[in-house]
Amino acid sequence: MKIAIVGSRGIPAVYGGIERHIEELSSRLVRAGQDVTVYCRDYYTPENCHYYQGVKIRRLPALKTKHLDNIAHTFLSTIDAILAGADIIHYHGIGPALLTLIPVLCGVKTVVTIHSLDWKRKKWGRIAGLFLKTGEFCAALFAHRVIVVSETLKEYFIRKHRRKAFYIPNGINAPLPKTPDLIKDYGLNKDNYILSVGRLVPEKRFEVLIRAFQETVSDKKLVIVGGSGNTDDYMDFLKKIGGHRVLFTGYQNGEILRELYSNAYLFVLPSELEGLPIALLEAMSYGKTALASDIPENREVMGDFGFTFRTNDTKNLAEKLKILLAKNNNDDKESKARSEYIL
């Protein structure tokens, strides 16, 4: 079966939850005997990359702008996939889902995976938000199958669209714990920092975390791992308010990211919007104590094995940080329980 995967920047995944999701999904489909092509943006995937872990790579031009990048590349990819004889086009995200009617009219099966309700993101204006809501409507109306990554999204599609959605949560690979080595270049060592991971976009609410952290008295640093998502002004704002105790590493993956997870004293996720947060899953798989905003998606991940604070409440987050900084977060029994729960 020929499967075309559309809607991401591409693979190999350099950054981004959707890119990592697609990298893992596509390679597993190939191992299951499927013929899989992932459509990639020419500025993201190296020019000499034609196959990755058995997955066919199809690089197409993209308009590297905030509003046209995704939809323009999705349109080119959709037409190319139809002409290439794809049996299934698998769209990722409600933005790309705006074009689901095109393959349906051409007799091609379509699947849409909803990772989050992107129209809620603050970086989008009114018109962009309207297009994203229309994409959500198209997924519900035209796609042959809709997949969601959280129970919260499943319930939303039933309530909002009266549409059955298949719940397939994000997964992660088993952790590979590492001792501090590469992170020492940043002045980091075991248990001397609090970790947060995610794109530097407004809905992640890193400014709430920074301001709460600044209310604590500790010799630990706050390490924020991630880069801009067409949100350079927000990234610059965070760095301006950060101060000397806050370290921004930019995007990280591979060995150094494993070291960062392995040696963190505490993991914090302050988001006001998530699908099913891979960073939180990964941190807990390493046995880390996790403190996250009390949105349903975070609660769904953590169950009874994490701590929450009131979303967007700096004072409440500061109080919880102070409690956890005074607590022994390295109890082996508790760490093992968190890891086993996630895995």
Brief description of this entry?
The chain is an alpha/beta fold. Helix content is 38%, strand content 18%. The strands form 2 sheets. Strands 3-4-2-1-5-6-7-8 form an 8-stranded mixed beta sheet, sandwiched between helices. Strands 11-10-9-12-13-14 form a 6-stranded parallel beta sheet, sandwiched between helices.
Mean pLDDT: 95
| Continuous helix count | 12
Here the CATH topology of the largest domain equals Rossmann fold
Number of strands: 14
CATH superfamily heading of the largest domain: Glycogen Phosphorylase B
Looking at the overall shape, the CATH architecture of the largest domain is 3-Layer(aba) Sandwich
Number of domains: 2
Which percent bin holds the helix content? 25-40%
Task: Give the C-level CATH assignment of the largest domain.
Answer: Alpha Beta
Question: Beta fraction of the residues?
Answer: 15-25%
Task: Please identify the structural class as seen in this structure.
Answer: alpha/beta
Order of helices and strands: EHEEEHEHEHEHEEHEHEHEHEHEHH
| Termini Cα gap | 30 Å
Q: For the largest beta sheet, what order do the strands appear in spatially? A: 3-4-2-1-5-6-7-8
Low-confidence stretches: none
Taking Cα atoms only, what radius of gyration do you get, to the nearest Å? Answer: 20 Å
Main β sheet profile:
8 strands, mixed
Taken from the alpha-carbon principal axes, the silhouette is globular
